[in-house]
Design goal:
Order of helices and strands: HHEHEHEEEE
Mean pLDDT: 88
Structural class: alpha+beta
Number of strands: 6
Shape: globular
Distance between the termini: 25 Å
Number of helices: 4
Low-confidence stretches: none
Number of domains: 1
Strand content: 15-25%
Oligomer: single chain
Amino acid sequence: MSPARPTNQANVAASVRARLLNVAKAQGVDFNQVLVRFALERILYRLTQSQHADRFLLKGALLFTLWYDMPHRATRDADLLGFGASDLASVAETFRDIAAVAADDGIVFDPTSVTVEEIRKEAGYGGVRVIIAGELAKARCKTQIDVGFGDVVTPAPVDSVYPVLLDDLPA
């Protein structure tokens, strides 16, 4: 992938991948399911570290991880509520910025891979689907984020620390 890797990134990536494999075995779940969740966690982390953090709220199935200390249905995407420009070009540029945020967590997202398409048009609900390619020690991690625009937020949003699969990584 084209983005520059931080020093020692290959060793970090291999270590993280091995630890995620251990998590999958310990939980008795498919490694790909753990890999998808990890990629979603890490793109959310990068979002919080970006200049765009105040433009999005987490919603959907990933919130169950925040609310309940028990297994829940696996999800393959993140659902966000977006504020601000919702045109495809603006959303693509935003997520290219987010994908470019460096983090020492082993996964590398490719900003040039960002694709955005409209969803839910027929329902009269504005939304876009963002796909970002990532890589963790040669394992491909396609990350899907669905962003809706125009929803009312009730009650008011609450800042929370999102639980992570590997405790030594920032949330």
